[in-house]
Amino acid sequence: MGGGNINGFVNKTTKIYLSLILVMASVCFIGPIISPYSLLETDISNAFSPPGLSHPLGTDSSGRDILTRLLYGGRVSISVGAAAASAELLIGVTLGIISGYFGKWTDKIVMGIADVFMCVPVIPSILVAGAIMSDLKAEPAIRIVIMSLVIAL
Prior knowledge:
Layout: H1 3-34, H2 66-102, H3 104-119, H4 122-136, H5 140-152
């Protein structure tokens, strides 16, 4: 009936994008290990170098390699996203089981709490949490956990 072509296209497109995401994630986790440049090491003599063979994306104002810094940033972003998705899954499944098992008034309470959390704007909450952690000079591992929980909630 023609539906096979659409499904074949969707499956093929999904496979292409999934493999692209997996390649990008792999590069983010493996790239900093094989990169010859440090994340924080500065070289003022190389400041604002244009893209070339030694620095594929150039350098920043402190002479740090931009590609290396992007790969480290990608690693953190993927870690936060995976942790947030795991926390969301754990919270959602737990509340769903409780709500489904007990029903009636428990379901109404759980849904009321969920409605309250859904009303809170996510991006300002993330910005506030990030600003608080910057002021408290929180360790990077603690920042990842807190940001994941803020996103998950």
